[in-house]
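Cont'd.
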Amino acid sequence: MRLKNKKAIVTGAGQGIGKSIALKMAQEGADVVVVEWNPDTGVQTRKEIEALGRRCLFFAVDVADRRQIEKMMAEVIAAFGRVDILVNNAGFDRPGNLLKTKEEDWDAVLDVHLKGTLNCIQAVIPHMMEKSYGKIINLSSVWGKRGAVSEISYSTAKAGIIGLTKSVARELGKYQINVNVVLPGFILTPTVSKMAEKYRNIIIENTPLKRAGQPEEVASVVAFLASDEASFITGAEVEVSGGWNM
Amino acid sequence: MGRLEGKAAVVTGGGRGIGRAICLAYAKEGADVIVNYATKDQPAQEVVELIGKMGRKAVAVKGNVALKADAEKIINTCVDHFGKIDILVNNAGVSKPNMLYKMTEEQWNEVIDIQLKGPFLCIQAASKYMMERKYGKVINVTSSAGLWGTKGQINYSSAKGGILALTKSAARELAGHGVTVNVIQPGYVSTEMTEKIRTDPKLKEIYTGRILLGRFAEPEEIALTFVFLASEESNYITGQLICVDGGLGMT
């Protein structure tokens, strides 16, 4: 149990990679705050965490809404007393090529990924700075480095998360708060299962390991970065992509 | 149950510094270890004894990784004793600093041979066995000097820069055979190699000032990332550079 009694917040924990991260944290001994806009999937994750014998709080909030996040953080501190780990995973995709991308889709994607990540970090850091301890892990994507056709808003948001991570790491290093970013490659999540098989096969063909990753294979990397084993890692990009983007 | 239970590992340059910490961390997680060293017997024997006390097997193998026969001997000793090789850490290193205009051909050759040809020869010898069993974890070591260059160590930084491409090419070739290949950049660590920049007050201030976390690393905390990359937890990571440098690369 490498996260025994740690208090962790995982955003977008209702499904896919976020859910795997939340469950992995609980398996490693952490109490978990599940942040998920969809009440049905969020409740399900909470049930599974409680079945592992850990405490769990669930908030059906929108990370892009600063007031909701500030209110949530006050309740988390009231209940758990502190936050050791923040995983900014919440995100979604509105694919569309450059010409057809609507302003509202662009805004929605950037708001959740970028402003949502900023909101959660700003709300949590006073509590981490007070303890001189904290682990912040942001989720980017290999597409944030490579770009992708018909993914202008998503890939831009994911690239922004890399810059955001490094700036935050610079500001918080002296408080012994580690801030890192994980870049998953092609992972089998509900989001990619909607992708046409033709495109999925192209990506797998370009992945040296010749297979898609499982959400659990990303979760184990995030758990490592959240643990004290990674105490000297900060400002780092860690790709979990089967070698897709060398 | 350890995260490397029943695994067989080779760590080159395992007698001292980061290599020593890796050997001990691997044994603690359940692996048997080949402790390679080039010159000093005593420190390597000490590592073997410590691992024995942890209830794991260890063998010290003297050898220069830059020599093909030695590299093969190191890898074959692992297979002879433990029946296989699961993990190879190319950690052996040497530093022969000199300014560009004064550097001798010998200084260049020695560092390039040990730090670049050595990993090549060890991977070549180990990959044969790993491909047979469709399993393997290779971990190389680079340095801040390999990523950004440095003054007075053009041999060292060239070797460490070369390791990045060696890692990626090996990762591409071996991915289809169940073998992952990654490279770690450990930043400034409290070892013999960094003694001067840790003890000279002026140098210490300069070097520490480059690290976001404001301190040098201990070998033991670097070793934990080597455990992570050797474990099943990192199965979908290959061809990657992992910086364990306290944010050094960003300053």
